[in-house]
Amino acid sequence: MDAEGAGGERETPVRRRGQGELEAQVLSVLGGASEPVTAAWVLERLGAGLSYSTVITILTRLHAKQAVTRSGRGRPVLWEPVANEAGLAALRMRRLLDKQSDRDAVLSSFVSVLSSHDEDLLRALLAESGPDGTGASPSDRPER
Questions:
Q1: What are the φ/ψ torsions at residue 78 (nearest 5 degrees)?
Q2: Which of 30, 89, 116, 133 is disulfide-compatible with 81, CB 3.0–4.6 A?
């Protein structure tokens, strides 16, 4: 059958979510919780025709990315956010950077395409995090 249904009406195409969109939605729901919650609680708030197994898959992926924690022995497993959407994006950026052989070139390229506002913000954040941008004094950091 083509895009028209039996009554001659066009079927509405199913919109695919963008990469990471469902993860962001799950994190947003978890962020609204006042305590660790079950996957069923997350599913109830997400709605959108998702299955329980889809929610479990997303939570498991977020756990692997260290964006959520899970607690509880056996059932029910309770989930809690470690990172919000911004934190998840930062984790992704860090993982991408960690995969690069020339980190200096990647960071240099990244900084070169920042807007002046973003550049100023980055400078301010680095300045407030410590002398070398780590937030710790040299004696607090492990040797590399």
A1: -110, 140
A2: 30
